[in-house]
UniProtKB/TrEMBL annotation:
Organism: Hirundo rustica rustica
Protein name, per record: Methyltransferase small domain-containing protein
GO terms for MF: methyltransferase activity
One of the GO biological process terms: methylation
UniProt-listed CDD domains: AdoMet_MTases
Domain of life of the organism encoding this protein: Eukaryota
S-adenosyl-L-methionine as UniProt keyword: yes
Keywords on record: Methyltransferase, S-adenosyl-L-methionine, Transferase
Pfam families named in the record: Methyltransf_16 (PF10294)
InterPro entries: Methyltransf_16 (IPR019410), SAM-dependent_MTases_sf (IPR029063)
């Protein structure tokens, strides 16, 4: 059982459903989406649930969030992965769009997967979020993203996202208004799909 220490009621109220959708997908599709020894980064990790599950499934995980959330995130990740997973995950600060090259240099940072659960909602950092996806994503990186549609902002972000990335719906949860997407850089989805069925 995964234990989460939540300080902010907002996180408790909003994030878990999206994170659970993504975790459910990872666990039930572990053959098609084999995370063993893969490099995974979760952006906007919040309580760390997705990072914890990816770690338990054998990935090298970097869980990221804002500096003020790292204490909670570190506690949850450590509590639920210490001596329970193949690779101990790390927790790192990531403020979208800020010091990306300094903290995650393109020349040395390669992620097989970028995971995100409910990072698109009504906030003023959607440009920075898109910049962060763009910076972290290589030609063979797969983005797995759980998103709830609430307002027109979300639709506009998806349109902008699709200028850089090919997007595919891999699961839909209409009762929750949540869609799980797979994305890759433009033109790379078909090249990779012959090797990987997600």
């Amino acid at each position: 059982m995964i234990r989460a220490h939540k300080v902010l009621a907002l996180i408790e109220a909003i994030q878990p459903t999206h994170a659970l959708v993504l975790c459910y997908f990872l666990e039930t599709n572990s053959k098609q989406c084999n995370l063993v020894d893969k490099n995974v980064i979760e952006i906007g990790a919040g309580t760390g649930l997705v990072s914890i599950v990816a770690s338990l499934l054998g990935a090298f995980v970097t869980a990221t969030d804002l500096p003020e959330l790292l204490g909670n995130l570190q506690h949850n990740v450590l509590q639920n992965t210490k001596q329970k997973c193949k690779h101990q995950p790390c927790v790192k600060e990531l403020s979208w769009g800020i010091d990306l090259e300094k903290n995650f240099p393109r020349s040395s940072c390669h992620f097989d997967y970028i995971m995100a659960a409910d990072v698109v909602y009504h906030h003023p950092f959607l440009d920075e979020l898109l910049l962060t996806f763009d910076h972290l994503c290589k030609n063979d990186t797969v983005i797995l993203w759980a998103m709830k549609f609430r307002l027109e902002n979300e639709n506009r972000f998806v349109d902008r996202f699709q200028t850089l990335f090919d997007l595919e719906i891999i699961s839909n949860f209409p009762s929750l208004n949540i869609i799980l997407y797979k994305a890759m850089r433009k033109g790379r989805m078909n090249a990779r799909s012959s090797k990987l069925k997600i």
